[in-house]
Amino acid sequence: GIKIFVAPSSSSCLSIPTRSCTSVGLKIVVSDNKRRLRKCLAEALCERCAGVMKQQRLSASSFLARFFNEEILSAHAMNHLGKSGKGSAQVLAQRITQEWANKAMKLRVAPPTCQAVNARPSRPEIPLTLKQRRNN
Q1: How far apart (Å, rounded) are the C-alpha atoms in residues 59 and 48?
Q2: Which of 11, 40, 79, 108 is found 20 to 30 A from 102 (Cα to Cα)?
Q3: CA neighbours within 13 Å on the CB side: how many for 25?
Q4: What are the DSSP calls for 75-92, one per residue?
Q5: Residue in 90, 56, 60 with CA at minimum distance from that of residue 73
Q6: Residues 6+ apart with CB under 8 A from 115
Q7: pLDDT tens, N- to C-terminus, the chain (136 residues)
Q8: CA 30 to CA 7: how far, in whole Å?
């Protein structure tokens, strides 16, 4: 196949077929930009998940139980919500979404959603100043 040179520091790339060389180059780009890519990929995945939920008319708990395994749901329940990580995927998904709703109510903000679900991103309610109240 065609041979290419991807990384200046990798002279061995000259003798490697294109696919392997591209793989090496991609690994370098990804490892050098993990934080940026993690954020971009997380946002894109969230939007895709919201699209699937909307298309298949799934609730948040149904979506979690269907597309995330017990290990992931358990870790989220324990590490991020301080809740029990025991139970089936359905039980964990219910627990997680209930806790999301409870925390949203306590904070008086809309539950975390992706832009794909709402036409515009949700914002926390911020009390108006006296001047703003008079102008409204």
Answers
A1: 15
A2: 40
A3: 16
A4: HHHHHTT-----S-HHHH
A5: 90
A6: 47, 50, 121
A7: 444 444 444 444 455 556 678 888 888 988 898 888 888 898 899 999 999 999 999 999 999 999 999 999 999 999 999 999 999 999 999 999 999 998 876 765 555 555 444 444 444 455 556 555 556 5
A8: 13
